[in-house]
Amino acid sequence: MLDEALRSDLQKRGIFVASFEDLYNWGRKSSLWPLQFGLACCAIEMIATAAARFDMARFGAEVFRPSPRQADLMIIAGTVTKKMAPLVVRLYNQMPEPKYVIAMGACAISGGPFKEGYNVLKGIDRFIPVDVAIPGCPPRPEALLEGLIKLQEKIAAQRLFGPGRARHADAGDAADYPVPAYGAHDLEPPLNSGVFQPPPARRPDA
Amino acid sequence: MNDLVEAIRAGVPGAGVDVVENPGPSAQHALLLAGSTAVAVAEFLRDSQGWDFCSNVTGVDWPARKVREVRKTMQDGKEISESTELDVPGCLEVVYHLYSLKNKLGPLVVRMRTGNRGDDVSVPSLTSVWKSAEFQEREAFDLFGIQFSDHPDLRRILMWDEFEDFPMRKDYVAPDDCEYEPTPHDEILERVNARRGEA
Question: Alpha helix (H) ranges present in chain B?
């Protein structure tokens, strides 16, 4: 790694030094192409974020792709019903690496107001890994932009070599997640235990 | 409402039609149709009475219940109350809301009841009378398990085809997949503790 003091010293003399990783990550984080799909009312906020007033183009994420093969980022914008969940997982599997997921809104995170219903998935993190979760019902466009910036920070910090490197740089780690099947009473399996372990339930005052 | 019932009885001979009173302030009474003559009555309502638009179809689940009736009598200057318990058998009910665009009237509430909640859950479909009922009858079939005979395409519409339960019935038990609550309490806390005991 380049010494931070040396780098700043060189920069003052008009010499810009960057590591390959920094350049590569800067390029990736500055042109995230989201998959163009929405599931519920959060999608309207996502559309507002992409439109002129909030202008996601300022962060390089305005190119919404209609095909998962061309997308880097999946914004789960809205309620994921159990009927829709297998389709979302399949779309995620069809995206090429490197890929990222933003769960936008209370429903996508946990089921939200429909958590105790029979037909809503209690959070998309039961089936696919989520990088950034944005609470809100729905989140304001500013919140989505904040989530996008957090994701960009996460991408910028990813390492490409050595131990603990990013998933897409690790050839051994296949990112194909099992698609749940429609069962007689629920999805089968109801969650992917390789991705989701419920945190221990404990009362805060206990 | 009584005029309408008389008109139906005059227009459709042998029509099985009753009035379900609504004792609330809205006084929105409903017609209760017998299954055997429901299609003929519906056609009469549409063609002769001007109820040309069916805006809403939904279902109601009535589980078997007990009704306590208290009767008060005066005896030797004392008030004596006797109570009797009546068993009311359960049934499923379909509710149609009709409007008349021609006469600017509505809604007219029309109901039909099934024989029970188990093996006799069939009512005649009114899709042949009001085309707009097709998808909503499918929804009532999907969520309540009401079988509409002569429906052109009776499949599940909201849940997936492999699903076997009827989630809007009162005795439906949702899958126990709520392992995590930020602040579990009451029933959910008991369930979480029970599951931890098993594991």
Answer: 2-11, 38-47, 133-144, 186-198
